[in-house]
Amino acid sequence: MSGETGTGKSVIINEFLITANTEEYVFTTLNFSAQTSSKNLQDLFMDKDKFMRKKKDLLGPPAGKKMIVFIDDVNMPALEKYGA
Question: Taking the domains of the chain in order of start, what are their residue ranges?
Answer without folding.
Answer: 9-72
